[in-house]
Design a protein that fits this description.
Strand content: 15-25%
Number of helices: 13
Radius of gyration: 21 Å
Keywords: Hydrolase, Protease, Zymogen
Shape: elongated
Structural class: alpha/beta
CATH topology of the largest domain: Rossmann fold
GO molecular function, one term: metalloendopeptidase activity
CATH superfamily of the largest domain: HybD-like
Function: Initiates the rapid degradation of small, acid-soluble proteins during spore germination.
Subunit structure: Homotetramer.
CATH class of the largest domain: Alpha Beta
Helix content: 40-55%
Pfam family, one: Peptidase_A25
Order of helices and strands: HEEHEHEHHEHHEEHEHHHEHH
Length: about 325
């Protein structure tokens, strides 16, 4: 497949389909819409499909956030409810079992602070079972939360911190939230991906750490991610593609210049751009200027959706009352 940096399964599938003009074998895609919110489910069924699109076998649910969501409370609530319904399909444990929510990322860097900000808004209840047994009945799931920081701050692998906590408190499921990278600027801060394949912290910026998955922790791991950055080389490559397409449209069909433009390999062009940019800008990642507002609103959406999914016996009003 085309060598483009993306953490989104829906984009990996689109890239493969664009290149080969067909769906990848072993990849099943279902698209639906609810309350004007598009939901795309990509199921990677086998190793062949995983190899073709470069994603681990499993289920990836992508929710497209409508435009202007960050400034409209009603739309934010709608997205949160859609997120909750999508999460419930993957959280397959009894409501009495303990869940651990982990906010990955660096709280000092806004585009990477999504995870820690979500954790601040989670309905944490595990300790109340012993502290306030009369006020918390069995309808409330025990939930605990953790923001372990990053290796550069703590000197400890994030995966090691989580593994130690899991071994100690023995939750039945782990839900990780992290910032991702997209290959398309239109998806930055506009897409939520949910997957049951785990996650590698730092993967979005090409800095993979210890994998956090069922294989490493021994329990199911749900990953929630939002692309907050895009690779600068990808932006340059996309801009050049637009220029080339326009030049092809303007060139005389069948002419020497036309044939030369048509023969340009976009994959090789992308590699060339990355090689040329690297000495000057390094591994530059770009994020929109309004990222502070976006991270704040997206963290509210994800925390609300996650609270609803983890507490199926409570509604939003009851959860809000508890949090206040």
């Amino acid at each position: 497949m085309i060598n483009v940096r993306t953490d989104l399964a829906v984009e990996a599938r689109e890239i493969y389909k664009e290149q080969f003009k067909r769906e990848a074998d072993g990849v099943v895609v279902v698209e639906e819409e609810k309350d004007d919110i598009k939901i795309t489910t990509v199921n990677v069924k086998n190793e062949e499909g995983a190899r073709m699109i470069g994603k681990v076998m499993g289920t990836y649910i992508t929710i497209d956030i409508p435009e202007f969501t960050h400034y409209d409370g009603e739309i934010m609530d709608n997205v949160a409810h859609v997120l909750a319904e999508s999460l419930k399909k993957l959280i397959d444990i009894e409501h009495t079992k303990t869940a651990l929510v982990v906010g990955l990322g660096n709280w000092n860097v806004t585009p990477d602070a999504l995870g820690p900000q979500v954790v601040e808004k989670i309905m944490v209840t595990r300790h109340l079972k012993s502290v306030m047994p009369d006020a918390i009945d069995d309808s409330v799931r025990p939930v605990c939360a953790l923001a372990p920081g990053v290796l550069g701050i703590t000197g400890i692998e994030t995966g090691e911190v989580i593994k130690g906590v899991v071994d100690r408190i023995k939750p039945s499921i782990v839900v990780c939230i992290d910032a991702l990278a997209s290959r398309n600027t239109r998806r930055v801060n506009r897409t939520i991906q949910i997957g049951n394949t785990g996650i590698s912290p730092g993967a979005g910026v090409g800095n993979k750490r210890m994998e956090i998955s069922e294989k490493t922790l021994g329990i199911p791991v749900i990953a929630i991610g939002v692309p907050t950055v895009v690779d600068a080389a990808t932006i340059v490559s996309d801009a050049m593609d637009l220029v080339l397409d326009e030049m092809i449209n303007q060139a005389s069909s069948g002419g020497e210049f036309y044939n030369m433009l048509k023969s340009i390999d976009k994959n090789e062009k992308g590699q060339l751009i990355r090689t040329l940019l690297n000495p000057h800008v390094g591994d530059l990642m770009v994020t929109p200027k309004e990222v502070d507002i976006v991270i704040d609103s997206v963290s509210k959406i994800i925390s609300s959706g996650l609270n609803l999914a983890l507490q199926p016996n409570l509604d939003m009003e009851e959860i809000t009352k508890f949090m206040n």
